[in-house]
Amino acid sequence: MVLSSIRLSLGSLGMCVLFACTGSVNNENRIPQVIKAVKDTCNLDLTGGRRLIANLSCTNCHIVWDNGPRMRKNIPLFTELSAMDSVKLRDYIFKTKHNGMYIKDFPDAGKRIDSLSECDKNNLIHYIKDHNKDHINSSSKNK
C-alpha cells in the first residue's frame, strides 16, 4: 500500500516535470518587451547660451568679474553662479530666487525667461557652467 502510493506520487511528479519542461513555447502569449530610446534633440550650444544671456541681460545684475561691484549684496557674481551645482542653478534661475524680482526691475525679462524652452534652459545653464571652467583655466595659467 505504501509502495503504491509512493509510486503514484512519483509518477504524478514526473508527469508534472515532464509537462513543465517540454511544454510548447507559445510566442503569441509572450509579452513583447519594448525598450524606449529617448533621443536628446537639444544639442548643447555655448553660442545659444551666450545669446540668451545677452537677451535676458543677466550680466546687468550678475557681474562677470570677480572683483566687480555688486549691484546688491544678495545678488551673486556670475562666477559664483557658475560654481553652483547644475540642479541648484536650475532652481535658482527658474524657480526661487528670481520670483518677483523681474516685476520691479526688468518686467520684460520675466516674460522672456518664463517662455524659454527646455533646450534654451539647458543651453543657458551650460553656458553659465562653462564660464567657470574658462575662468578657472585662465586663473591657473596666470600662476
UniProtKB/TrEMBL annotation:
GO terms for molecular function: electron transfer activity; heme binding; metal ion binding. Residues 44-132 form the Cytochrome c domain. The keyword Heme applies. Transmembrane segments: none annotated. Residues 1-20 form the signal peptide. Keywords: Heme, Iron, Metal-binding, Signal. PROSITE patterns: CYTC, PROKAR_LIPOPROTEIN. InterPro entries: Cyt_c-like_dom. This is Cytochrome c domain-containing protein. The lineage of its organism: Bacteria, Pseudomonadati, Bacteroidota, Sphingobacteriia, Sphingobacteriales.
